[in-house]
Structures are given as structure tokens and as C-alpha cells.
Design goal:
The complex is a heterodimer. By secondary structure, chain A is of the alpha+beta class. Among the domains of chain A are: 104 residues; 117 residues, no CATH class. Helices cover 30% and strands 21% of the residues of chain A. Chain A is built from 13 helices and 18 strands. In chain A, a hairpin with a 2-residue loop joins strand 2 and strand 3. Chain B has a domain of 147 residues: Tetratricopeptide repeat domain (Serine Threonine Protein Phosphatase 5, Tetratricopeptide repeat, Alpha Horseshoe). The longest helix of chain B is centred in the first third of the chain and has 19 residues. The chains are: A alpha+beta, B mainly alpha.
């Protein structure tokens, strides 16, 4: 009796485990656990936030700011935020549906079926509102104009294309399929087919491998949102405002080599992890080339072997952005030297 | 002085167009004022007497005698710039464009920074059908500041556009006209010029076949609406054009070209529609290749680039898109000669240099890639606006 009972118990256990396994949803995290656990909490993972999931607005239930004769108020209650513009006589109140940005936040709002970029944004360094960077010139003349910058079709697909996943299909916005922030399939095209093939045991379909891309191609890939070197050159964007376009700045570096993986974006940054802010963390990246015995075209720093970025990648304020960026144009910085561009 | 110069201008038969007349007055006045101080430096009594008589004749409207007297004054003192200017403007006013050019040549030799003189010479050359030198002179005039006043700018930019269209550089002509539309300079002359450039007709407005006038004007109006950013009315006008002139080449191309920067996807749709009307249009294949390339879809870009190059191997845009598409799809070595061909005729072509960065990098020629990057930054910097909206 005993062995039989034991067999029954074992059979029941196996069946129940199997049933549990069948019931559990198969996701990217099922196999790519470490990446899937950390990526959603990165800045890219939180590049777009929906109502009810916006800690900045939740912790700042009432924000106000004045531009000329217009007063802006952002009020948040029970996870819902209203963007209110008033000229003292009339006011327009619109729900905030999409918050763009994990740190500074700009809102995309709708009025009469048209989308606008909010004329004010939330800046953590100010702990409040200020004019949205790039919109300083607007000078609205009516209450409707004071809402913000009307977005073109191209603007809309660009904003949602970079701040969310699956929102743009065939170059058109499709809010029904939008997933907030950047999820796996934003970068790994074909990952859903890969997931389906894994779930159903059909012929395995793998997304194109990003790790096989050259440094140049990775730079262009990341530059699809962070602005590629080529895009910035073509547009002729000069001045310190371009410090936020890291692929452009990096490719201007003398040490940049489009074929050397040691200078690739992903040599220093793991997009599945939060951005590492420790200066020391990056030393090993620099020393991968600038080390003894000296490697071709890579000098060894005579001053220090630690905290390289503090001298060679200076922090640079982004005008109007209330934010300081690390300048990715790696160089020997000379005192008083103008911003190289 | 004012009345004299006005008389010179109003006698010009070329300026029958209301669009062109006022700016020439400004141009001439500008030159006269700038040359007064040099005129007073002359001391010869014979010379002074001739100049006084010439001025009097000019003020009395006796233009042939004024011209003759200024010629005599220049024989006595060929280094007196003002006389050459008066001769140039008087002869321009009587449609004697070739001698006007000779007089202005002298003036420019003596006063090489005189932007308005380049502008006037450019206008004379345009009248003689010398479109390349005319374009060069008008561009020099702009560079020297002759187009700082809106009215002068209108006449110069308008003729630059006409020159470009006559030279087959229709897209650049449309760029000039777009500037004018955005500055609120719309008028029937400009609308006609836009229509000609839009239809890719390398003729002057006065040479339009009357049977085509309606088409040209309608196209000009529709395109000007698009240039002004009136997207709804532009769409309506173009749809009407497509319905009425369904087999006319270049209409979809024009609309796609004008839409492209704001709505690349709609641009692609229009270019594809154009190919249904004009399957051998090299520029359309080239623009389609370009549009796909900007989307990173070089697999779709390549066949269009190849067709563009087959249809018109002399088209720089075709060579550019083919070179780039070959580089991006892996045949870097085959792409290089096409890019070099572009640079041989246009060494400052930014797009060709951008493509070469990619090509050299893919070939592992890192130093050359670096040099090309620096070259791109230099070219880009020339037309850059610091901290432009991004």
C-alpha cells in the first residue's frame, strides 16, 4: 500500500506543478529574468507614464507657474491630474493623459482632438514648473495658444515612438496598442514572435541580435531617440543644447572608432539597468584602452587613473533644461576652452 | 536725385511687372548714395563739366544724351566708378543689357563689394539668357547684403528662382519661392513661377504656351498654399489637380516633395503615385530612395536608387542615393564611386560626406572616417544656427 500511496502522492504533485506551470503566463521575464526585472524601473522604462502611475505628480498635488498673463496649474487628486491654463477671466482644464520623461516631465494633452506639448513642464531640480525647453519663444496671444505647442503628425509619432512601445505602427499613432515606456519589443524587434514560438514550441524565431551590431550601428540605433550623430550634423544644431545628444557628442570624440566595441554606447551603459552614477564605475571603461602597455592611438593619462570622467567628460548645463548633462565628447579639457562643437 | 532715379526705373520696359519695379528703385538709390563721395573727388574741369551736363541730361529725361556724356566722362577718367554705374543703369533701362553688363563689369572691378551692382548685372544676364552667371551674380549680391531690404530681397530671390528653374534645378527654385511665400510676397508673377518650377518646365513665364496657363497657375496656387503651411487648402487644391490633370507628370512628385519634410510617410505615398503616372521619372525614384533611406529602410531604398541612376545617370541625387544605399546594404566598395562622383561636381555636398563617414567606417578606414566627420562638422557649421530648436 505504501509504495502505491507514495506513487499517487508523487503523481498528484507532478500534475499540480505541471498545471501551475501551464497556468503561469510566459513572458520575456520567464527566460530573461535579470533584464526583465530591472529594466522597467530604468529611465527608459519610465519614459512615459499614465495617470495613476506618476510619483512626481502624486507627491506634488498642486503645482503653479505664471507665463506673462497666463497662470498654469497642475492639480493631482486620486491619481488623476488636470492641466489648467487661465488668463484670469477664462480657464481651460484638460486631463493629463501622457507624461513624457522619467525626471523632467512634459505632458501631451488633447484639446478639440488636437495634441499639444504642454507649455510648462515639471523640473525636479526646480521642484516645480517652468517653461518647457524649446518653447520659450512661443509668447501665446490667446488662451488656446497658451495651452502649448500644437504637435504635427510627425511630432506625435516621434514623441510616442520614443517614449512608449507599440504606439506607432506604419508611421501612424495607435493609442490602442500603446504600452507606457520602453519595453522589450521597443528595441528588440520581433520579440513577440520569439515569445510566441517559445510558448507554443514552434520553430524558434529569434529577434535580430543587437549585440552583433558595430559600434557605429549601435550609435545610430540608440540615436534613433537620443539623436544620432548624422541627424544632428544634418540639422546643424550647434551650441551647448546638443550636449544632451550623447551619440553625437561621443562620435565627435577623437577616440571614437565606429568599429571598436570598447567605445560603443553599450560598453558603458547597460540599457536594462539604471544609469550608473558612480564616477569610479566608468574608470574600467576608459582603461580598457588607455592603459599600459600603451595601445595604438590611446594615450595613458599622466595625471590619474581614477575618476577619468570628471576631467575628460565635463558636466555641462543644458540651457533652459534645468539639468546638467555629462558631455560625451571625450577630450582633454583645457581651462577657458569654449564648448567644442 | 530721387526724381532722376525714378525716371530711370519707370522707363524700363522689362519692368512691366508690378512685382519687379519698386525694388529696382531702391537698388539704384542705394548705389547712387553710396557713390556720391567718390564723385566729389574729381577735379578736372573738363571732366566736371561733362559730368554736370550728364547729370542735367539725366534729370531732364534725356537718357541717350546722358548715356553719351557719361561715356565721354569715363573716357577721360575710366577709374571713376559712378559713371559706370549710371551707364549700367541707363542701359539696363533701355533694355541694352549687353552694354549694361560691360559697364557694370567696370564698376564691379572698381568697387568689388558693391552688392547691388552684382544684382543689377545678374538681372541683365538673366535677360540675355545667361542663367548660370546670372545666378552666380545674384547669389553674390545676397552674400554682400544686397537683399537685406525686403523689396530688394524679393526681386533678387525671385530671379534666383527663375535662374535655378531655367538650369533645371527645380527643387532649389522651389526653396527660393518658399522663402518668398513665407515672407508674404505672393503675387501672380510668383505663383506662375512656382507653377513652372513645380511642373519642372525650364522656361520663362513669358514663354508659357497659353493653353497651359491654367495648369501652371493652378499648380502654382496649390503649391503656394502648401508652402504657406495651409495644409487643408493645399490638400484640397492638389486633389482637384489630380482629378483634372490625372495624366500630367510631376504633380504627385511636387506634392510629395512639399509635404516630405513635415510628413515623410505621405511624401512616400505621393512619390509612389507619381511613379504610376511617370514610371521613368528619375527624380521620383531618387526621392523615394531618399525617403526610404531616412527611415533606415535601405533595402527598399536600393532598387529605387538603382532605377534613378539608370534613368538619369547625370542626376547627382541619383548617384547620392545609390552610393548610400549600396554602402548601407553591404556593398561598400560599389557605393564609393557614386559618392565620389557627387563630390567631384559638388565638393561641399554634406550628404555625400555623411555617406562617406559610414563607408570608411565600414571598411575599417578609421582615419578617413574621422576626417570625413570633421569635414561634415565644418560644412554643417557654415549654415548652422546655434541652439536651434531641437
Amino acid at each position: 500500500m505504501r509504495p502505491c500511496k507514495l506513487a499517487l502522492i508523487l503523481l498528484f504533485y507532478c500534475f499540480s506543478v505541471s498545471a501551475q506551470r501551464k497556468a503561469a503566463p510566459v513572458t520575456c521575464a520567464s527566460c530573461h529574468r535579470s533584464q526583465a526585472l530591472t529594466q522597467p524601473d530604468t529611465q527608459m522604462g519610465r519614459a512615459l507614464q499614465l495617470p495613476g502611475d506618476n510619483p512626481e505628480l502624486t507627491t506634488h498635488p498642486k503645482l503653479t507657474y505664471t507665463i506673462g498673463s497666463y497662470t498654469y496649474t497642475v492639480e493631482t487628486q486620486h491619481g488623476q491630474s488636470q492641466y489648467i491654463v487661465s488668463d484670469g477671466t477664462r480657464s481651460i482644464s484638460l486631463p493629463i493623459l501622457w507624461s513624457m520623461g522619467a525626471q523632467a516631465q512634459t505632458w501631451v494633452i488633447q484639446n478639440d482632438g488636437r495634441m499639444y506639448e504642454s507649455l510648462v513642464s515639471y523640473y525636479p531640480t526646480l521642484n516645480g514648473l517652468f517653461t518647457t525647453v524649446g518653447d520659450e519663444h512661443m509668447g501665446p496671444k490667446t488662451l488656446e495658444e497658451a495651452i502649448g505647442r500644437p504637435l504635427t503628425q510627425e511630432d506625435v509619432t516621434t514623441c510616442f515612438g520614443c517614449h512608449s512601445t507599440n504606439a506607432v505602427q506604419d508611421h501612424k499613432l495607435n493609442l490602442a496598442t500603446l504600452k507606457p515606456g520602453l519595453t522589450c519589443e521597443h528595441c528588440h524587434t520581433g520579440s513577440m514572435e520569439h515569445l510566441n514560438s517559445a510558448m507554443h514550441g514552434t520553430k524558434r524565431v529569434d529577434p535580430p541580435s543587437l549585440s552583433d551590431l558595430s559600434t557605429d550601428d549601435i550609435s545610430s540605433f540608440c540615436g534613433g531617440c537620443h539623436r544620432s550623430w548624422e541627424l544632428v550634423v544634418r540639422a546643424g544644431w550647434k551650441g551647448t543644447s546638443n550636449v544632451r545628444f550623447q551619440p553625437y557628442r561621443l562620435a565627435n570624440s577623437k577616440c571614437y572608432n565606429g568599429n571598436d566595441p570598447r567605445i560603443s554606447c553599450i560598453a558603458c551603459h547597460d540599457p536594462h539597468q539604471k544609469v550608473e552614477t558612480s564616477v569610479a564605475y566608468y574608470d574600467s571603461k576608459c582603461l580598457a584602452c588607455h592603459t599600459t602597455p600603451r595601445q595604438a592611438n590611446a594615450k595613458v593619462c599622466p595625471v590619474s587613473k581614477i575618476n577619468c570622467t570628471t576631467c575628460h567628460m565635463p558636466k555641462t548645463p543644458f540651457p533652459g533644461g534645468h539639468f546638467i548633462f555629462t558631455d560625451h565628447q571625450i577630450r582633454i579639457v583645457k581651462p577657458g576652452e569654449p564648448y567644442p562643437d | 536725385m530721387h526724381s532722376t532715379t525714378t525716371q530711370v526705373s519707370t522707363n524700363q520696359s522689362f519692368h512691366s511687372s508690378r512685382f519687379l519695379r519698386p525694388p529696382l528703385i531702391c537698388l539704384a538709390l542705394c548705389m547712387v548714395f553710396s557713390s556720391r563721395s567718390q564723385m566729389s573727388a574729381q577735379t578736372s574741369s573738363d571732366f566736371d563739366s561733362i559730368v554736370a551736363n550728364a547729370s542735367a541730361a539725366r534729370e531732364q529725361g534725356n537718357l541717350p544724351q546722358a548715356n553719351e556724356l557719361y561715356q565721354q566722362a569715363e573716357q577721360l577718367n575710366p577709374s571713376w566708378p559712378d559713371g559706370w554705374w549710371y551707364i549700367g543703369t541707363l542701359q539696363y533701362g533701355t533694355n541694352d543689357f549687353a552694354p549694361a553688363i560691360i559697364a557694370l563689369d567696370h564698376y564691379i572691378t572698381l568697387t568689388p563689394k558693391a552688392g547691388p551692382a552684382y544684382a543689377l548685372r545678374g538681372l541683365c544676364e538673366f535677360e540675355l539668357g545667361q542663367y548660370s552667371p546670372s545666378l552666380q551674380d545674384l547669389q553674390t549680391a545676397v552674400a554682400l547684403g544686397a537683399a537685406t531690404q525686403p523689396r530688394n530681397a524679393a526681386i533678387i530671390v525671385y530671379h534666383e528662382g527663375l535662374d535655378l528653374a531655367r538650369l533645371g534645378r527645380f527643387e532649389e527654385a522651389l526653396g527660393q519661392y518658399t522663402q518668398m511665400i513665407k515672407h508674404g510676397s505672393a503675387n501672380p508673377d510668383l505663383i506662375t513661377a512656382i507653377g513652372l518650377a513645380g511642373l519642372r518646365m525650364p522656361i520663362s513665364p513669358k514663354d508659357i504656351d497659353p493653353s497651359q496657363m491654367e495648369l501652371v497657375s493652378s499648380v502654382g496656387l496649390a503649391a503656394s498654399e502648401c508652402m504657406a503651411g495651409h495644409t487643408a487648402s493645399a490638400s484640397r487644391d492638389f486633389q482637384s489637380l489630380f482629378a483634372h490633370f490625372s495624366s500630367t507628370p510631376n504633380l504627385h512628385y511636387l506634392y510629395g516633395y512639399l509635404l516630405f519634410s513635415a510628413d515623410p510617410q505621405e511624401g512616400i505615398v505621393q512619390f509612389s503615385d507619381e511613379l504610376a503616372v511617370s514610371p521613368t521619372s528619375a527624380v521620383t525614384h531618387a526621392m523615394l530612395a531618399w525617403a526610404y533611406g531616412l527611415q533606415g529602410n535601405f533595402a527598399a531604398s536600393l532598387p529605387n536608387a538603382q532605377k534613378a541612376a539608370v534613368e538619369d545617370p547625370s542626376l547627382p541625387m541619383a548617384q547620392l542615393v545609390l552610393g548610400r544605399a549600396l554602402v548601407e546594404t553591404g556593398d561598400v566598395t560599389a557605393g564609393l564611386p557614386h559618392l565620389e562622383a557627387v563630390l567631384s561636381s559638388d565638393p561641399q555636398n554634406l550628404e555625400a560626406h555623411l555617406a562617406l563617414v559610414k563607408a570608411y567606417s565600414k571598411l575599417g578606414r578609421n582615419q578617413e572616417a574621422r576626417q570625413e566627420r570633421l569635414q561634415c562638422l565644418a560644412i554643417s557649421g557654415q549654415g548652422a544656427s546655434a541652439n536651434a530648436s531641437m
